[in-house]
């Protein structure tokens, strides 16, 4: 399996298989939303798009990064979301990096959205599909955010069937600029517990796949059938 690691702006073709990585915090938050019962997560093109969806579907739950805002029900924080009952709900998520990365590869036949909490399930799906090439979209810091790059490299190793020690990858993520900003409370709409929740390796047994449904980019849970090979 060949691998490419690209920032969002470096995606210029339509990959066969894309893994969009956002550890802090979009795809840690999305995984928590599923765990709290969400049926699907719609990845919105813009804040205006998210609000328009809410107008059309008042029962949908809107979520954005940064500070709370009128029309939005939740912020992009795993700690602040994890006690919210989302049973059967559709969540509409708009963030600065994670959702933008998925929309950049919306035409790819397989789009997985990933973070450390779903790392092994994501790698398991890739082992199952055994594609010739996987494009990892490293969403933060123009492709250089250390937490996303570390997670992408870890998943790539596991997808290749290697017995990979996760500790150095988690340490890189813990030392990242994003982790520091979240810990210092620089980012609005955050909790001091967010970093620890974003670094919980394999907290959840499912992967997350995004497909276009009625012109919306929709993220759903998907469970690999293979068992870990290492
Ligand atoms: O909510 C987050 O942590 C970030 C916000 S920003 O990129 O630091 O402005 O969004 P995400 O898309 O989850 O990385
Ligand atoms: Mg991020």
Automatic annotation (TrEMBL):
Keyword Cell wall biogenesis/degradation: no
Catalysed reactions, as listed in the record: (2R)-O-phospho-3-sulfolactate + H2O = (2R)-3-sulfolactate + phosphate
Cofactor(s) essential for the protein: Mg(2+)
EC number: 3.1.3.71
Keywords: Hydrolase, Magnesium
Keyword Magnesium: yes
Name the UniProt record assigns to this protein: Probable 2-phosphosulfolactate phosphatase
Annotated source species: Streptomyces griseoincarnatus
Lineage of the organism: Bacteria, Bacillati, Actinomycetota, Actinomycetes, Kitasatosporales
């Amino acid at each position: 399996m060949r691998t490419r690691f690209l920032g969002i702006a470096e995606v210029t073709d339509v990959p066969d298989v894309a893994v969009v990585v956002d550890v802090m915090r979009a795809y840690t938050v999305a995984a928590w939303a599923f765990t709290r019962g969400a049926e699907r997560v719609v990845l919105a093109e813009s804040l205006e798009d998210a609000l328009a969806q809410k107008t059309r579907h008042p029962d949908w739950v809107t979520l954005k990064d940064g500070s709370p805002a009128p029309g939005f029900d939740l912020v992009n924080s795993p700690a602040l979301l994890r006690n919210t009952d989302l049973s059967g709900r559709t969540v509409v998520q708009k963030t600065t990096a994670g959702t933008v990365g998925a929309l950049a590869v919306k035409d790819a036949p397989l789009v997985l959205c990933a973070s450390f909490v779903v790392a092994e399930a994501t790698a398991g799906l890739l082992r199952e599909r055994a594609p010739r090439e996987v494009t990892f979209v490293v969403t933060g810091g123009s492709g250089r955010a250390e937490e996303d790059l570390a997670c992408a490299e870890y998943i790539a190793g596991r997808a290749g069937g290697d017995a990979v020690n996760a500790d150095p990858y988690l340490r890189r993520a813990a030392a990242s600029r994003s982790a520091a900003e979240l810990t210092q409370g620089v980012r609005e709409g955050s909790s001091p517990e967010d970093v620890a929740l974003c670094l919980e390796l394999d907290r959840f047994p499912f992967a997350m796949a995004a497909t276009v449904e009625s012109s919306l980019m929709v993220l759903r849970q998907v469970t690999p059938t293979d068992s870990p090979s290492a």
